[in-house]
Design brief:
single chain; 3-stranded mixed beta sheet; 300 residues; alpha/beta; Rossmann fold; 2 domains; 9 helices; GMP Synthetase, Chain A, domain 3
């Protein structure tokens, strides 16, 4: 009889290399928001892969970047703190890289310090020629003895099963840490907050996204007079400046309506019920430096 394996894995990489897309592909559920903007992931999000022979708990960490605020420093600290707590590290880089950049060098140094088994994953292989890929593999393999090097395309879901197979080989025998029908440690409220932020990132201009966060003040289930199930959700998008507030709301409230409608659709799909979603916009200057807010993004 095959022995049951379980363990903890962290997914690390620079901002915008596709970590959240990869995490969602691995777990076949939407657990992390994705957007074509840097620093999309702010907290350590767990995804749980369940099978009759294994349970793999993978944490998607914030992208490594040069922090400019207390929030940014917390995000980077969170990513590296995970190294000491896991069995395996997944290091994600872009196939389009031609050398080892500053950010990747920092990550490599932290991996070396941790002495943990590490799998190098090269994402976006559909964007380059094979000879460039071979050069990149050689470049990184000279730096560290990776347990495996796996070229993938997270968006096309190529190479996903290979990652799972390699992880199972490296993980120890162990128990089930979570129920087998659980695929994330986030609550539906937390996921809903992230969905609203994802839609804001999608529709907003470049200068605004890093300065927003979303908070749900009310998340209540009820039945209508006709007996239909519905969730009432009241949420607020906080931004740094009055001018940003105007951009988020848009002309005649059009942009905010777009954000809310798109978010409501995804939340309804997740909950399987109707949703009455209300979204407000408020200014909270310097929130990225305030401990009571930044602490929400710290590793729990």
């Amino acid at each position: 009889m095959e022995k049951f394996k379980s363990g903890f894995v962290t997914l690390v990489g620079r901002t915008n290399v596709g970590k959240s897309t990869l995490l969602n592909s691995l777990v076949k559920e939407k657990v992390a928001i994705t957007a074509n903007k840097v620093q999309t992931t702010r907290t350590a999000i767990k995804a749980i892969l369940n099978d009759k022979n294994y349970q793999i708990i993978i944490t998607d960490t914030p992208g490594i970047h040069k922090p400019k605020t207390k929030l940014g420093q917390t995000m980077v600290d969170t990513a590296f703190t995970m190294f000491s707590e896991v069995d395996v590290i997944l290091f994600l880089i872009e196939a389009t890289s031609t050398d080892i950049g500053k950010g990747d060098k920092i990550i490599l140094e932290k991996i070396k310090e941790s002495k943990k088994p590490c799998i190098l994953i090269i994402n976006k292989i559909d964007l380059i020629e094979k000879d460039k890929l071979l050069n990149l593999i050689k470049l990184y393999s000279n730096e560290y003895k990776f347990k495996a090097v796996i070229p993938i395309s997270a968006t096309k879901k190529e190479g996903i099963q290979t990652i799972i197979d390699e992880l199972v080989k490296l993980l120890p025998e162990g128990p089930k840490y979570y129920d087998e029908d659980q695929y994330t440690d986030q609550t539906v409220k937390q996921i809903s907050e992230e969905i609203i932020r994802e839609k804001a990132l999608k529709f907003l201009e470049d200068e605004v996204p890093h300065g927003i966060y979303v908070e749900i003040e009310n998340f209540k289930y009820r039945k209508t007079t006709k007996g239909e199930e519905i969730y009432d959700i009241d949420s607020t998008i906080y931004c740094l400046r009055e001018s940003h507030k105007g951009i988020i709301i848009g002309k005649g409230g059009n942009l905010l309506k777009k954000i809310a409608t798109s978010a409501r659709y995804d939340i309804e799909n997740m909950l399987g019920t109707k949703v009455n979603l209300k979204v407000w916009v408020k200014v909270k200057e310097d929130w990225q430096e305030k401990d009571n807010i930044v602490n929400k993004f710290k590793l729990k």
